[in-house]
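Archive transcription. Copying these from loose printouts into the bound notebook so they stop getting lost. Printout 1 of 2:
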Amino acid sequence: MTFEEVYEDFILYAKSRHKKQGFETITRNFNLHILPYFKGASICDLKTIDIIKWQNIIYEHHFSNSFNNNLYSTFSSFINYCVLCGYLSSNIVLSVGNFKKNYESKNYDIYTTFEFFKFRHNLELFVHRQFFTFMFFYGTRPSEAMALRFSDIKGNWVYIRHNIHRRGSRSLDTPKNVSSKRFIKINMFMRFRIFLLKKYYIKVYGSYQDYFIFGGIKPLSTTTLDRYKSKACKKAHLREITQHQFRHSYASRMLHKKVPIDTIARNMGHSKPSTTLNTYVHLEHEKRMLSILNSRFN
């Protein structure tokens, strides 16, 4: 069978075994960066050298390490399917190994609490102020905050149980992983702001429905948020950080307050505390080192 014929069967197999967003990523990456290099080839004739040549072509694109890793995992899953079906005797992608990692300078820029308040003061709309406040003080992913509805509020707790596709239809999906489904305790100020949003939506849209907390009938869009975020940063004379970096800001602040790593990991929906350690601890160390150096030269 040809590569394309087996791939058509593989996508039917994969569709029932992956979340919608994950499946869309797999098919997009496969169609753009794997299928074109093996079009017309016979699966049974696939050799190790073919995988090595493919990797060499991918290296020329200078993709990020994480993207290369996703391509490798996608291709390996496909070859595993080929082994399962008897087209190949072993996973030759696995035997070749993953892409060699390149040095990458990670950008974990964050806002201090003072910078955040300065930023928030310059946001024009109340709903946008509350969206960024929620991420900054509770560390959710942007897609998790966008997916929140009023039915997810349980007294002093917010139930994180959905993720939203930030592109295209912006439909609801299950969280990123099992640990992402969690309860987050909110304070009385956040509860009151959420109440004000609910009151506003009822006034604008009529009788109560289970509105999105940040948006109303529809969730806020990524592009709209970015546009207002850019305007606020310019007015406040602040460097602009990404939506996800408000989550980074939360993690850094919790580490600075010496909150236990396992507590931070649980609140952020990380599956393992090591993920939190690997991502954020070096950032806190850099901040402390900079503070020490600054104090010596003052």
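Printout 2 of 2:
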Amino acid sequence: MAWYWALSLMVGGLLVLLMLGLPVAFAFFAVNILGALYFLGGEPGLAQVVRNAVDAVSSFALTPIPLFLLMGEVLYHTGLAHRAIDAVDKLIARVPGRLSLVAIVSGTIFSALSGSTIANTAMLGSTLLPEMRKRGYEKKIAMGPILGTGGIAMLIPPSALAVILASLAMISVADLLISGIIPGLVMAGLFFVYVVVRCALDPTLAPGYDAGKFTLLQRLRPILVEVVPLLGIFVVVVGSILGGYASPTESAALGALATIVAAAAYRTLTWTALSIALTETAKVSVMILFIICASITYSQILAFSGATDGLLAIVEGVDIAPIWLVVGMLTILLILGTFMDQLSMMMITIPFFMPLVSTAGIDPIWFGLMMLIALEIGFTTPPFGLLLFVMKGVAPTDTTMREICWAAAPFIGLQIVTVMLVMAFPGLATWLPTIIGR
């Protein structure tokens, strides 16, 4: 079979199954079984599928995923995240769009403590959105910052998706995790400036209200008590990696332990909260690992069928500058993000993208960080952005999906601006990993 027919069968068959509504893991396994029977020699190919699944889930590099997810779930279900939001709320005052800014600052802080984008959005939406609506905030300025900062959790470590991407792309997990810190803060800064300027130009978007008079000490004390100690979790995770004291897996374990210790120290850790956190972590982790099980076989089949080599030969035969190759790959991700989840996008594109990156001499960490942002954008792009549905679940019942999409639009634009900044100034992504490597 010609390579282009093999490519059409593997990619096209997967897209058809996904559009029919088959769960991602089952869609990949169905395509893999057919591909193994045809391209890997029948029964021996099926045996290889099983061996690949065992190898995938037993990989030590994937251990940070459930640990990072557990950190976010413990913070959410023990109420520590809500207390941090209240502290930030007291600090920010007399600024246009105050509660929207609280969402951005709180979301960025929570991103540094959680590996879960969904938990970030659900927590901010359920906590801040009702208060914003009660204060007369327009839906677009109330929901937009929450949707935007929900995606920052993918950039600022700990990030479960960054671990998955680095593991599948065969690049340094530690370098990719660290590379997201500066771009994540840049993105948060763009969100902050946008909200202040927009609300200053149109005060009706976020009507002002009397937040009470507090002394400087009364504003700073909740931050010192409720937020600064929690940032110790971030220091444990990132500091242990930066200092060379722990691998990403070990730092994830330290972070999970530090989160549980913090909840216990604040006397919010209960058996019920811990049980719920563990259950939710297990649900998401199992789904992720099932999909990863299928990834190795999928890549092998593409290689055995000649699809990967055929596509590489075409690209190598075209005289195209590396920067335009990067633009093309990121554009593909943005298009896929409108109708596909992030794990599926990685499974489909990484077997093609990373060989291209290597052939063109592109820095894999720089590209991996931009790929991570592009995947993040897919979380909020209609019609199938996952965070849009999370917001629909926590928003008032009269909120339409159209309103949620319009609220997300400016922040999607700012995320694209962040990609452009990283593309123009690669040091935003590579400086910290370079410093660590010295």
